[in-house]
Amino acid sequence: MNILANIISLTIVFAVPLMLVALGGMYSEHSGVINLALEGIMVIGALCACFTLQGFDRSGFGPAHPQLAMLCAILVAGLSGMVFSLLLAFAAINLKADQTIGGTALNTFAPAFAVVVTWAVQGQGLTTIQIPNWIRITQATFGMEAGNGFLDSLIFKYFYLTTPIAVLLFFVAWILMYRTRFGLRLRACGEHPQAADSVGINVYKMRYAGVLISGFLGGIGGLAYTIAVGSGFNSSVGGYGFLALAVMIFGNWKPVQIMGASIFFALFKVIAAYNSSIPFLPKLEGLKDKSSLYQMLPYVVTMIVLIFTSKHSQAPKAEGIPYDKGTR
Amino acid sequence: MKQKKPLAENGMLIAILSSVLSIIVGLVFGAILLLILNPAKAGIGISAMLTTGISSLDQFGKVLYQSAPLMLCGLSVGFAFKTGLFNIGASGQYTMGAFFALVGAIQFQLPWFLCLLMACIGGAIWGIFPGLFKALFNVNEVITSIMFNWICMFLVNLLFANMPTMLASAWGASNSDRSAALAKANPGAIIPKAGLDKMFGNSSWINISFFIAILVAILVWFILNKTIFGYELKACGLNKDASIYAGINANRNIVLSMIIAGALSGLGGGLYYLAGTIQYVMEKSILSMGFNGIPVALLANSNPIGTIFSSLFISYIQVGGSAMQPNFSSESIDIIIAVIIYLAAFSLLIRGILTKILSGNKKKEVKA
Fold first, then answer.
1. Considering the domain boundaries, does residue B82 fall inside one?
2. pTM (2 decimals)?
3. Which of A106, A120, A296 is the closest to B151 by Cβ?
4. Complex ipTM
């Protein structure tokens, strides 16, 4: 029974960064900008947040008020991701640059920058930033006794502040996208910016908003990924930014489906890591390195799904095309 | 009498100038970053970055050796650009090419030139997918390429793990996480050095791969500029609808273009891993060589001949970057590369400004 609890709680902790970052990509794409830079944004967010956590740890503020410090770190992650995404927004919106190339530049920049900075700060060769262990929400946080039962493993084994915040941000996304004027305008800018402009919506501003929100969510996603992996920050987020793009497409650019897709992808990730100890999986005797097989499957499934959904794809129609007022 | 074109209308010159400009901006940005991070050691770092490549024949041999796969990945990305496709999947095609080459070399004990052919086939197979997905289902090739980069990495790891003869452990070494050393498994699969190693002061890096890459670059230039096929590809890239109207089969060209781009990256993987100095290590992250093809192609403005020079430049600063350790991490180079890619993203704007500046000068001359 405990293994089931472990799998569920691990799946959730890995689904959190995927969902956050995919939701970020959703905002950006609905505004009309392809955000290929999510991977880089995650790295920058995680870098800044990990340094913040380390600072809190040393100053003693962190151990004293763990969840308050964690909230600060989450905000730092989001804001730094936002600032970094400005680079993409500026190139894609003001300079009308090729968005995929701009995103590629940011993805090249971020991990290199992270390595160079951690190298310079922590000394040569020390490229891992350790995460303090007080950030986890435990039974003690609520004044309860630590136990070893099913519910204890299910809830508290991998419980971090990022999880409730992700749930909150999910509901915000759902309401913002489909229940507010802002969401409608944002989507209009991604579908038909000329029409949006003709009724007085500032397309440039909306696109900035889309990219910056995606930067905010991407940054938090970077921190959430680093926490989920648990072995410190290594200047990399293991391709989760790209995986989140797949999640977003798999989720058809819609919040609810994106949440489902991120859980699906996270489940495969967990199965890949724990396949030998999960009893109901096919044994595949004689096959070595089964974890590679399980890690490959989500990508293969995404491609197969894309074949069937591409005809009815809900992709924003104007994504990737720089908006030029002259084309109105 | 042939009239000389005015300076400002010379597209080639503008393209070269804008590339040089972005290189300079990238280097200055890198230098400033080093100065901020460690002012005391910055001078040593910068000079290591800029001079290591020509500090010895051995290092220069390394520049040439690394530039060959870079050139092919750059050609691959550039070739796809010409057809209007962004081949971010060069990395996967490169990895698949390397895998096929190594299977040819170790499993089937083939000679080196057949292994290189295998590499082309492996890369081409991996290039088909983004092409087909784009042509048949209209799925964006960027997404397909990214997905297939990851599929490739896991698949190659899976295959290596299940092909015991491919691993170093089958050939007398203890590690089972990498491919067998070619010197033991099949010396005939190592790309010949043709006496170059003696010319380069017994460099362990140099072989004829650099010259193979240049031949391929010329071949690609020929296909793009002197054949009907190349003309059709470029027409598709410039305006897909117009080319369909003109009777060009755009979907066929998209698939063919991706197959050729894949074969080029795949050959790059073959050239790198058949040198005999490197073993394929099972990775948990995607190989960066294919991604570095992107700046190579962008700096060359997708021109195959320009790719020769841009790949030499990228290879040169990379060799310099590894000499910057331990004062700075070698990733400093990637920051410079990132700045160059960033500037290339709005190269049209830069070119417009350059054209304005140059034509402005001309007007002044006329007045004077």
1. yes
2. 0.89
3. A296
4. 0.88
